[in-house]
Amino acid sequence: MNNKNITATLLVSLLGMAQAQAGEAVSRLDSVQQSGKLSVCTTGDYKPYTFHRPDGGYEGIDIELAQSLAQSLGAQVEWVPTTWKTLMTDFTAGKCDIAVGGISVTLERQKKAFFSDTLDIDGKVPLVRCEDEAKYQTVAQINQPDVRLIEPQGGTNEAFARAFLPNAKLAFHDNKTIFQQLLDKQADVMITDASEALYQQKRLRGLCTVNPSRYMQYGEKAYLLPRDDVSWKAYVDQWLHLAKATGTYQKVVGEWLAVPGQ
Questions:
Q1: Are 48 and 193 a contacting pair, CB within 8 Å?
Q2: End-to-end Cα, the chain, rounded Å
Q3: pLDDT greater than 50 at residue 20
Q4: How many whole angstroms separate alpha carbon 82 and alpha carbon 24?
Q5: What is the largest CA-CA distance in the chain?
Q6: Are strands 76-81 and 37-42 parallel, antiparallel or unpaired?
Q7: Is the separation of the CB atoms in 193 and 122 below 8 Å?
């Protein structure tokens, strides 16, 4: 076999391999429609975005929106429970097609996954007992050895605490009942996103959000998507754009965050 034939054979072989690999890389956009199932990872512990009820069902802003996304694809949602500590491990292991539930955009997560277009801008603020609101206005006031800081383990709340409040006494607690720890004076401050703080302030008398429009750290919320699946990301982004353009997104958010009487 001469050099020309060898080169031609090699090119055909390489082309065949590329086509085979391309055929194997099926987008979630296709697989979800073919299976009729949308697998959704969510922690179920972060109202108003995601909450796992005692009866086994889920509710929240992102729960309703995930159901809307599934409906647009002719699919049914399959919820995949996860935790903030194991979110990225579960997601990169391929356990779900999308992860939702008040997920903050970070560069560390971006290294391993795609994000959808931004849902909303949010940021870290203190949540405290109303009687102590004046005591915890700044990072310097909170970053003291006698301040009892409480957070759910894993996620961006813990990351903020470790980075900016190393002198405070940090303890961990389940995110579903952590707010009662503040009311029961078992802790002094929780750093969380303004959206969650304001929701809990409305729900639990005695808790106050400190400077909710003046974030200690800027943040954005988005949905987590598999890295390099461009077709899937394009579809989710377009669905989200239309949900916002038609008012569907705002309606769902308003049902959870609207202030009574307004």
A1: no
A2: 83
A3: no
A4: 28
A5: 88
A6: parallel
A7: yes
Once rounded to an integer, what is the mean pLDDT over residues 138-161? 95
Q: Does residue 162 or residue 25 have the better pLDDT?
A: 162
Q: What is the pLDDT of residue 11?
A: 38
Q: How far is CA 179 from CA 132, 155, 199, in A?
A: 15, 17, 11
pLDDT of residue 186 exceeding 90: yes
SS3 224: strand
**Confidence class for position 154, pLDDT limits 50, 70, 90:** confident
Q: pLDDT > 90: what percent of the chain?
A: 82
Q: Does the pLDDT of residue 184 top 80, yes or no?
A: yes
Among candidate residues 235, 220, 237, 22, the one with its CA nearest the CA of residue 107? 220
pTM exceeds cut of 0.70: yes
Residue that the structure tokens 């958010």 belong to: 253
Find residue 148's DSSP bridge partners: 169
Tokens 């085979």, residue located:
20
* Cα–Cα distance measured from residue 200 to residue 168, given in angstroms and rounded to the nearest whole number: 23
CA dihedral 38, 39, 42, 47 (to 10 degrees): 20
CA distance 261 to 247: 21
DSSP type of residue 192: E
8 Å CB contact between 52 and 45: yes
Q: Which residue type sits at 81? A: P
Q: Quote the crossing angle between the two packed helices 248-257 and 230-245, to the nearest 10°.
A: 70
